[in-house]
Write a structure and sequence with these properties.
Bound molecules: thymidine-5'-triphosphate, magnesium ion
Strand order of the largest sheet: 5-6-1-7-8
Helix content: 40-55%
CATH superfamily of the largest domain: Reverse transcriptase/Diguanylate cyclase domain
CATH class of the largest domain: Alpha Beta
Structural class: alpha+beta
Order of helices and strands: EHEEHHEHEEHEHEHHHHHEHEEHEH
Number of domains: 3
CATH topology of the largest domain: Alpha-Beta Plaits
Number of helices: 14
Shape: globular
Radius of gyration: 22 Å
CATH architecture of the largest domain: 2-Layer Sandwich
Length: 349
C-alpha cells in the first residue's frame, strides 16, 4: 500500500492576524475581533498576545475586557477574510487538486502522490502564503487526517510538526483523549471518572467493552485511539452533500418528540455549512428518517430556505409515510454540482 501523506494547514489567529496586518499600529498589542461590548457582542477570535490573558474564541466581549481592559476589539470584516481565504486556497490548489477546506482558514491536502517530501512541501506552502498575504500558518504532516490535524496544533503559531508512521504508537499512547475528534470537555470529564485520560488508557479496553460503554462511537474510538483514520481527503468541489444524523437509544414515538430533536440537528448543520463555506451552493435540503423496522425514507426539496421551519415541514411529510416509531433522524443539504456547470460553461465558449 502506498503510504499516505496528509497535510493539515491552519492559519494562525486568522481574523485577528488580518486586522493586525492591515493596521500595523496594532502589532504587539492584545487584539480581538468581534461584537462590541455595549451590544452584548461575542469574540470570534483574538491574537496570541490576548490569549495570554485567558481570552478565547466565543467569549463575550465584556468578559474579555474584564480580563484585559486594554484589549483592542476590532469589528469583523467578513468580506476581507473571505478574500484572503480565497487567495490561500488558490496557493493550496497549485500543489494538489486534493484540497479539502474545513473552514475559511483550515484545509487538508493529500500530497501522497506528490514527488516532494511532505515536510518540505508544508514548509514551502507556509512560506508562499506568508509571501503573498503576510499571514502565518501552522501545519501538521501525518499519514492520516486525524493525526495531521492534531499535529498542526503542536507548534502553533507559525510552526509545523510531523508524525511519522513508526511514531504513531508512542504518540497515541501519551495523547490526552481530549485531543481526539468528537471528544469535548464534558466527555473528557466522564472518561476521567472511568480512569481514562490518555489514548493509551483507551487501548487497554476491548472493542466489545468500548461498544458497551459508548455504543457505535465506542467502535470509532477503538480505531481513533490507535491513530487509525481511513477517511479520505474530500475536495470541496466534489462534495455533493453535507448531512448529520442521530440514532436514538429509545425509539421516538410521537411527532412532537421527533420535532423536539430537530433544532439541535439544525444548529449543527448550519455550523458545519459555515465551516465548509458552502451556504451559497445549496441546491436542496433534506430530512432522513429511519423507522423502527429499519426502513429509511428521505424527503428532499429544492428551493426552500435553510430555516428550521423548512426542515420541520419535511419532517412532518416523512413521518406521514409510516405509522412507526423512529430510530434515527438526520438533516442535510445537497450542493449544486459546480464542476459540471463550469465545464458546460466552458463548452459554450
Ligand atoms: P480557528 O482556526 O479555530 O482559530 P484561529 O485561526 O483564530 O486561531 P488558531 O491560531 O488557534 O488557529 O478559527 C479560524 C477563524 O474562525 C478565527 O480566526 C475566527 C473564526 N471563528 C469564529 O468566528 N468563532 C469561533 O468560535 C472560532 C473558534 C473561530
Ligand atoms: Mg486557525
Amino acid at each position: 500500500m502506498v503510504q499516505r501523506a496528509i497535510i493539515h494547514l491552519d492559519m494562525d489567529c486568522f481574523y485577528a492576524a488580518i486586522e493586525v496586518r492591515d493596521k500595523p499600529s496594532l502589532a504587539g498589542k492584545p487584539v480581538a475581533v468581534g461584537g462590541a461590548r455595549d451590544r452584548r457582542g461575542v469574540l470570534t477570535t483574538c491574537n496570541y498576545e490576548a490569549r495570554k490573558y485567558g481570552i478565547r474564541s466565543a467569549m463575550p466581549t465584556f468578559k474579555a475586557l474584564q480580563r484585559c481592559p486594554h484589549l483592542i476589539v476590532m469589528p469583523t470584516r467578513f468580506e476581507v477574510y473571505r478574500r484572503e481565504s480565497a487567495r490561500i486556497r488558490e496557493i493550496l490548489n497549485r500543489f494538489t487538486p486534493l484540497v479539502e477546506p474545513l473552514s475559511l482558514d483550515e484545509a487538508f491536502l493529500d500530497v501522497s502522490a506528490h514527488d516532494g517530501d511532505p515536510e518540505a512541501l508544508a514548509y514551502l506552502i507556509r512560506q508562499l502564503i506568508f509571501q503573498q498575504t503576510q499571514l502565518t500558518a501552522s501545519a501538521g504532516i501525518a499519514p492520516n487526517k486525524m493525526l495531521a490535524k492534531i499535529a498542526s496544533d503542536i507548534n502553533k503559531p507559525n510552526g509545523q510538526f510531523t508524525i511519522r508512521e513508526e511514531e504513531i504508537g508512542a504518540f497515541m499512547r501519551e495523547l490526552p483523549v481530549r485531543k481526539l475528534w468528537g471528544i469535548g470537555a464534558k466527555s473528557a470529564e466522564k472518561f476521567a471518572k472511568l480512569g481514562i485520560s490518555t489514548c493509551g488508557d483507551f487501548q487497554k479496553h476491548s472493542r466489545i467493552e468500548l461498544y458497551e460503554w459508548f455504543g457505535k462511537f465506542g467502535l470509532e474510538l477503538y480505531s481513533l485511539c490507535r491513530g487509525i483514520d481511513r477517511r479520505e481527503v474530500e475536495p470541496y468541489r466534489e462534495r455533493k452533500s453535507l448531512s448529520n444524523e442521530r440514532t436514538f437509544t429509545v425509539d421516538l414515538t410521537s411527532i412532537p418528540q421527533c420535532e423536539a430533536r430537530i433544532p439541535d440537528l439544525f444548529e449543527e448543520l448550519v455550523g458545519d455549512l459555515k465551516k465548509a463555506d458552502g451556504e451559497d451552493r445549496v441546491k436542496a435540503i433534506f430530512v432522513k428518517i429511519r423507522f423502527a423496522d429499519f426502513t429509511r425514507t428521505t424527503v428532499e426539496r429544492a428551493g426552500l430556505p435553510i430555516k428550521l421551519e423548512s426542515f420541520l415541514t419535511l419532517l412532518r411529510e416523512g413521518l406521514g409515510r409510516k405509522a412507526l416509531g423512529v430510530r434515527l433522524l438526520g438533516l442535510g443539504v445537497r450542493f449544486r454540482d459546480e464542476t459540471s456547470s463550469s465545464a458546460s460553461q466552458m463548452e459554450l465558449w
